[in-house]
Amino acid sequence: VPANLNIVGSCVDDDAVGSVRIVLDGDRENEIVAEGKDFWSYYLDTTQMEDGPHEIIVYGIDHKGVVGREQKVVWHLDRKQPQIEVDSHEMGTLVSKKVKISGTVADGNGLESFYYSLDRGENYMPVSIKQDKKTKLWHFSINIDTQKMDDGAAVFWFKAIDGQGSEGYLTFLYFVDNTTPDVSIIYPDEKEAVNGLFSIAGYAKDDIGVESLTWTFGKERGEIALTPGNPYWTLDLDVRGEKLKSENFSITARDTIGNVSTKKLKVLIDNEQDLARIDLASPSEKEDFDDELLLRGIAKDDDGIAEIFFSIDSGEVYSFPSEGVFSVSASDFLDEPLSVGAHELQIWARDIHGVVGKVEKRLFYRSGPLPGFSNASVITGIKADEKTEVYESGMIVHPEAGSQFSIDIESLCGLAELTWSFDGMEEKTKTFVGGKNTTGARGLTNLCIPFDSAWGSSQLRIRAKDIFGRTSEWIASFYITNLTKTQGAPELDFSDFLDSKDRILLGEEEVHGFFIGGKAAEVRFVPET
Questions:
Q1: Which class in CATH covers the domain with range 5-77?
Q2: Domains of the chain: which residue ranges?
Q3: 414: phi > 0 → left, psi -120 to 50 → alpha, else beta; which?
Q4: For residue range 306-317, what is the model confidence (pLDDT) as tens digits?
Q5: Whole-number Å distance between alpha carbons of 400 and 334
Q6: Residue 487 has pLDDT above 70, yes or no
Q7: What pLDDT, in 10s, does the model give residues 187-215?
Q8: Bond from prior residue into 527 cis (ω within 30 degrees of 0)
Q9: What's the CATH class of domain 275-366?
């Protein structure tokens, strides 16, 4: 019966029929009195009744109240088609790989068969079903491998046939997505080494949408929050202080259906490049200075410079702020001047993240003053009876007196060489162990120079060169006595021909005399003889 039911019949009794009673589905407490007696009817509204088998019991009562025999009829209400529901997934759901579609079929008249189709109903495949006795529902489960299907929208067609031959249909829309997310690492390049604080960047794309983006870096791991509509991501990592040469990084994207894609990168690490470096212009290697030690150069770091440190000879550490370029006087930091000689500068920088850079070492020297001269004198005679005169410019020296010129030369850093010469004479040299890596002749050095000069006015030039190649010069002026000249006033000497009264004796022999104290321009007798 597919609709409302008109129940009709007849009732016969030898006396007379009093009434006809109807019992629906065993409900004797709510018996129905039919219209009519010998011929009776009842119009049954089935809209509120469940599909399936129903029972009608009818009996008559005569006018004396005697109950007649019951008549029973079983009939099937079939107002509704089988109701199919999918409870494993919602309409329009995303599926991937292998998936199980399950649900229930409800029909009061029982289920004769159940089918599904993947080709829009052109071909149906039977599905085994099983009824739950408590709920009266029929359950189905279908395993589908979506990897054999094209990505995109697809439709399940279900068909159920109940016990009365009524057919019920359900079309179930779903979307196949077996495409993994497109995930990539843009920076850094696999051949590019990173250091300190650095960033990794890339993108993660998926047509349906990326649900999560997770990463690992060595023992570290985490998740990156994506901005809707923006597939690009960045991640800041820190390898400061690490001695590793490389570390493995992976980024994993999962879409909303569960498809997973992972990209891996072996990150090269070179923390040497993270260390701040100093290009030191002053002092240069083995440079010498006297009064002020200037520190000048540029500190470089990819993150930025915060401070520069230095010490001398591994002593106290001094510092000053800097953003890179610097020019300061180290002498301003020192409590006392540096000693003359070799010293080592250690200088390094710290970046804005606190990473301390490499130490730059530089050998330098404090040269001190130029060589100085003092205590100049002329020494005459032998040691047992020598005479010392303080040098005065232009002083007279007898060439046969065995005199020597004496002078002290002082060099705090050390003498390397002394040279001297008189005018017109060959230069002479006295060499000490020289060079910046040696001490040379430190302190006072005495130099004695024998007089070796032509007669007359002469200059003695002395040059002192220290271990840094710096020179000082001393010039002394002398008059070396000319022994070819008479010493004293000019006069005539006829001593060999004088008598006791100092008179010249003239006779037959020649008279010889001497002109002393000069060179005679003319000789004549007055009066002439």
A1: mainly beta
A2: 5-77, 83-176, 182-271, 275-366, 372-480, 486-529
A3: left
A4: 999 999 999 999
A5: 57
A6: no
A7: 999 888 888 888 999 999 988 889 999 99
A8: yes
A9: mainly beta
Burial 477-506 (b: 16+ CB within 10 A, else e): ebebbeeeeeeeeeeeeeeeeeeeeeeeee
Sign (positive/negative) of CA torsion 493, 494, 499, 505? negative
Residue 315 has phi, psi (to 5 degrees) of -90, -145
Distance of CA 170 to the CA centre of its chain: 61
> In this structure, are residues 95 and 145 in contact, taking their beta carbons and an 8 Å threshold?
no
* pTM of the shown model: 0.49
- The CA-CA-CA angle for residues 120, 121, 123, to 5°, reads 115
Write the DSSP assignment of 198-246 as a string of letters: EEEEEEEE-SS-EEEEEEEETTEEEE-PPBTTB-EEEEEEE-TT---SE
With CA atoms as reference, report the closest residue to 380 among 367, 389, 369: 389
CA distances from 257 to 96, 175, 206, 468 (A): 7, 10, 11, 81
Task: Name the one residue in this structure whose structure tokens are 């791991």.
Answer: 221
d(CA 426, CA 143) in angstroms, rounded, equals: 116
For 334-383, the pLDDT digits (tens) are 988 888 888 999 999 999 888 888 899 999 888 888 999 999 999 887 76
